[in-house]
Fold this protein.
Amino acid sequence: MPREYETVIGLEVHVELATKTKIFCGCSTRFGGAPNTHTCPVCTGMPGSLPVLNKQVVEYAAAVGIATNCKITQHCKFDRKNYFYPDNPQNYQISQLYLPICKDGYVEIETEQGSKKVGIHEIHMEEDAGKLIHDDWEDVTMVDYNRSGVPLIEIVSEPDMRSAEEVIAYLEKLRMIIQYLGASDCKLQEGSMRADVNLSVREVGATEFGTRTEMKNLNSFTSIAHAIAGERERQIDLLENGKRVTQETRRWDDTKAESYAMRSKEDAQDYRYFPDPDLILIEISDAWLAQIKSNQPEFRTQKMARYKEEYQIPDYDIEIITGTKRMADIFEEAVAICQQPKKVSNWLMVETMRLLKEKSMDADQIRFSPAHLATLIMLVDQKVINQTIAKEIFEVMFEENIDPKQYVEENGLKQENDEGALKKTVEEVIAANPQSVADYRAGKEKAIGFLVGQTMKAMKGKADPASVNKLLKELL
Ligand code: ADP
Ligand code: MG
Ligand code: ZN
C-alpha cells in the first residue's frame, strides 16, 4: 500500500508598515521615486550616523500583536543581525531576536473543514533592505536604497498549517486584520506583504516533524499554492526513493513550476546577533499599551454584527461589504448621508464589484467619494434621474469621481417629469404603433413593454419608466 503523507507548513510573513517615514530616520517611505532620493546618512549606513526609533512603528507592531491575540513584550529591544550583502549598507540589519515585541498569539481561520486556530510564535520589528536592480544594464548591478530602513514587522507562525487552502486563509485573515488597523496596505504584488513558506512532509500518524525547506519569492496566492504543491511532491519523491530532505532555502520559479536551492539554511548563531548598542531599550508603559488597545478599530466580526443590527441588510450584503475596510468605510459614509443602507449596498455589491473586476482593481483603488454615491442615490429617489441614467453616471463617477448633480445639469440628463410633455409623447407612441396597442387590448400584457421602450427612446431615456407604464395603461 502506498504511504500517505501530511504536509506541515509554517509561514514567515513580512509586512511593510504604513508609516510616513522610515524606522530609524526621517526619510520618506513612499513607494517609487527616483533611485536613492529617499535616503540620508542613517539609511545608507554612513559612519557616525545614529538611528532614532520611529514611535509609530512600535504602535503599529503592538496593534497587530493585540489583534492577533499575542502577549506584548513591554520591555523589548533591538538586535543586530550581521551579514554582508550589497543591499544592506550597514553590514547588519537592525531586527529583534531575543525580545520580540509580540509573542504567543493566534488567528482563527475558516476553511471548508471548519474553523481552526493558527498559532503565532512571534512578531518582531526590523528594517527593510535596499533593492538591487540587475535587469536594466548588461554587466552591472545597481542599488537603490530608497527601501533601506522602511519599517517591517515579521510575523512568524507555528507550523500549524496543513494545506495551501489553510495557508491562503491564514494570509487573507492577516491581511484583513492589518488593513483594518491601517498598519499596511498588504499588497503581495507590490511587496508590502511577503510570505516565506516553510514546508515539510511526514507520514500520516507520525509524531515528529520532517525536515523542512523554506521557499522565498512568492508574490501571489496562486504562486504560493503552486509552490506548496510542487515542494510537497519533490519531498515525497525524495523520501520514497530512500533519500533525505536537506534543510535549505529554495527559490520557487512559477513560470518553470519548480524550485531550486538558493543556499543551505543558516542558523541564528551564524549571524552573530547582539543587542544594538545605538538604541535604548523600548519601554511600553501600561498607559501606552492601554492607549494602543483603546485605538483598536472595530474588526470585521464586530462590524458584521453591528451592520445586521443597525442597517438591517442581508447577510450576503454584509459579507461582501465588510470584505475590505475601504468598502465598509464607503458604505458607512454614504449611508450616513442618504440614509438608504440597502440602496448603497446594492451600488457597492453590483456596479462597484462589476467595475472593479472588469478593470482588475481592488477596493483600495476606488476613486468615487461616498458623498457622490449618496447624491446619486438621492437623485434617483427624487426622480431627477432614472436608474438607467444613474448607471451611466456611475460609470463616469467610477472613472473620475465627478459630482453627479453637476454632471446631470451640465449634460441635460434631468428626467422629464412634466406630465404634459410625457402625455404628448405617449400619445404619439400609441398612434404610431397600432399593432402593439391592439395586442395589448386583446390581453397580451407583454405588448406594453414594447410601448414603454418606444416612449423611453422618444424621451432619450430621460423619463421615469414606472410613470410611463402607468400613463400608458391609463391611456389604453
Ligand atoms: P528559523 O529560526 O531557523 O528560521 P524557526 O524555528 O523560527 O526557524 O521557524 C521558522 C518557520 O518555520 C516558522 O514559521 C515555523 O513554523 C516553521 N517551521 C519550523 N519547523 C517546521 C517544520 N518541520 N515543517 C514546516 N515548517 C516548520
Ligand atoms: Mg526565521
Ligand atoms: Zn534616511
